[in-house]
Amino acid sequence: MSMFNPPHPGEFIREVYLEPLGISYRAVASKLKVAPSTFNRLVNEQSNISSEMALRLSKTLGRSSES
Questions:
Q1: Residue 47's CB: how many other CB atoms inside 10 A?
Q2: String of b and e for 17-45 (b: at least 16 CB within 10 Å)?
Q3: Distance set, CA 36 to CA 6, 7, 20, 58 (Å)
Q4: Which of 1, 11, 29, 38, by CA, is between 20 and 30 Å from 48?
Q5: List of domains in the chain
């Protein structure tokens, strides 16, 4: 049985939202009310996502916090 290796949440956000829509990470960080450096570390896969950040992202991006 092969293992499923899901993408990092930052990779998903970058490839589904930021790049196709031409949105800057600073604009999203501002809407999330976090420092741009915090969101940049997430998008560049240098930090993990917390449950609080998942909730903020779900409200900002219109998805469930689980996704």
A1: 16
A2: bbeeeeeebeebbeebebeeeebbebbee
A3: 25, 22, 20, 18
A4: 1
A5: 9-61 (1.10.260.40)
